[in-house]
UniProtKB/TrEMBL annotation:
Residues forming coiled coils: none
Organism of origin: Cloeon dipterum
Biological classification of the source: Eukaryota, Metazoa, Ecdysozoa, Arthropoda, Hexapoda
PROSITE patterns membership: FIBRINOGEN_C_2 (PS51406)
Gene3D superfamilies: Gamma Fibrinogen, chain A, domain 1
Name by which UniProt lists this protein: Fibrinogen C-terminal domain-containing protein
Amino acid sequence: MLRISVLLCAALTIGASLGNSVPFYNDDDEFSGASSNLQTNLQEQIKALVEHRKQLDKELDTIKIANQIELTALREEIESLRKEITSAKESSGPQSTSNNQQRNDHLTVQWLQSAVQQIRSEIQTELSASHNTSEIHSQSVSSLSSEVSLLRGDVDSCRADLEALRRDAELNTVQNQQNVEEIGNIREKAQSCSASCANLRVQLETAQSEWSSVLKPAPVQSKISTNNENRADSSSSVTEHMPKDYERRLRRVEKHLKTAMWSHAKSASREAEQKELLERVSQLESSSRTNARKFFNISRDLAAIDKVQKSNAQLKEQVTLLENRLDTSIPELQKEVTKMEFELAQTSSNAQVAKDSQEVQSKSLKNLMDLVSGLQDGLDENRALISVLKHGALSSSASSLLDEQQNDEESAAADKSVKRVVRDISRIEKDFLHILHTLPQDCEAISGQSGQYLIAPKLAPEELDSSNVIDAQFEAPILASCDQKSGAGGWTVIQRRTEGTEEFNRDWAEYRAGFGSPGGEFWLGNQAIRRLTADNCSSLRVDIHDIYGQNWFAEYTEFSVGTEQDGYRLWVNGYQGNASDAFEYQNHMQFSTIDSDRDISNTHCAANYEGGWWFSHCQHVNLNGRYSLGLTWFDSTRNEWIAVAWSEMKVRRRAGCAANKQQHQQQ
């Protein structure tokens, strides 16, 4: 902004210097209008900047007051939490009679202390962020004030330059009017001089003709009569005086001629002056055009100042957004503190209950925490632990502990605790499996809007052993993206590419398990796709957008994927859509990855194009390759490839497929 104002003043100063050397402007009304508009625009901008600064000051004051109030409240709440934790420690200490109870209470208090410490760190982070925001606001206000002061000085200097330019323009206008009047007078005098010269020329020609007729010699006659001689004698006295008269008239004509020549020369000099005046007028016009261009540049600089003001408005909006985020984060922190207070009250009440109930509750809490951590590590470990305990490993370890520590009371308590943990884990796992089996098998059973839902597809036949025992690793639910807008809805999305942020050059294990986020780019997983399509009752829809913004789709009424032992072999049938049947070239092909080449090409397609796919000869269809290399779909109708910018693959069950299978089985 300071640079724009300096350029503006420099332009006005240059215009003023040019106006002093050459005439500046022709039209006084246009100049006065432009200068008045410029002055009003500058005044409005100064007023807007001053008002913006006042608003920023008010907002900073309100933010500081609100932050101080909230900081005081949070400090008081944290102090009360500390007191309650201290009282809980003191109240729970005398009542605990066993080492296990004290250890559980101590762990609970440590957990609460860590939670409070985490809340404290978050509050400090928010306070530092708010402090940084206030510092940024103060810096922006100081910079705005300095810019406003500089702008005021620039406006004053520009105003003085405008006054000087206006005076120069008025003087130039008066001089132009005088020059125009002088040019008109000179033209009239030149016309009168040319007329007088023409009259003198006519008189001179007349005098020359008369003089030539007088001085012309008379013809010689051989015979002169007497009468002629007498007539000549009588007229000789008259002719003697005629040459003198003619000489006198000739001198007068010469005098008039000299006067006419002098006036002609004077008119020629005046014509030269007229040409010089015309040249000066043309210079004035060119300087006027130059000044008009300078005024245009000034108006463009003012437009740039308006853009700066708009950027200031955007900065204000961003500050408002930051304040809103701060306002929303503080209530969340208060909710967390309230939640911690509630949990602390529950812990205090549990500490005051009898010994047996307190022991059960503390152990249940510990078992629940252990269960959550165990579920995160994997249900297979819990299953292995239960199987070991059922086959006598626990009894043997317990007997060995009893042999080694017969007189130790803690061994019996530990034995009881382990058995209780086993029972609790078994009960919670049963509840977990019950909840898991109540989940929908796919997105078709979901009646809500498009979004992310937990589903639990039926296991494939090869996932059950001969005794129909389900392996624990197949019991995890799947977070799937459901599309309820395309067609009749109920589509389970198995693949999405949008902008190339997710790496698709993965190995066989990663493609088997799936990767990415259902909210962005992802691959659901080959085993999950196998489970969704194992009963051969699924349809496939592929939606793609090319780099030119055109939409394409291909839908297959029959779609399934084979077992892992068969390489997740692809099978599609019943094509329809405006994109060609590109899967025809890759039907019945196994899935290839960077570490498992199963295509029929001489090259390693998955390694060359950096993505797993059902490759045959590489590039007929490849929606999982490197995004920068290009995703492709071959259009056989046009004999060219579609440059894919966005793709989404989704499956759903065919209508009436399960009913037809049941009728066929009954027959």
